[in-house]
Design brief:
The protein is α+β, with helices and mostly antiparallel strands. Helix content is about 30%, strand content about 25%. It has one domain: 2-Layer Sandwich (GMP Synthetase, Chain A, domain 3). Strand 2, helix 3 and strand 3 form a beta-alpha-beta unit.
């Protein structure tokens, strides 16, 4: 089973296909210790992604696009994914 740092790199590599302006990935598995999915070794992650590809898409469509790139990683090695997917705006520009 890959370590969570390896899983983060896999997620990063997959989501790079969306040409993100911002891509932040956090391992939150430690917050779910004892949870059924955590017992099996699957991880819990939080992703914040800002990409021009999301412009004009509804939040649901943005999530679907992200899940499309990660679908074979769910439910293992990713058990849960908290997702914040946004199009670029003055509020989220670096």
């Amino acid at each position: 089973m890959p370590e969570n740092s390896e899983r983060i790199e896999i997620i990063r590599a997959r989501l790079t296909a969306l040409n993100p302006i911002i891509l932040e990935i956090q391992d939150e598995s430690h917050l779910h210790a004892g949870h059924e999915g955590a017992k099996g070794g699957a991880g819990h992650f939080r992703v914040h992604i800002v990409a021009s590809r999301f412009a004009g898409l509804t939040p649901v469509a943005r999530h679907r696009l992200v899940y499309h790139h990660l679908q074979d990683l769910l439910p293992y090695p990713i058990h849960a994914l908290a997702l914040d997917a946004q199009a670029p705006s003055p509020d989220n520009a670096k």
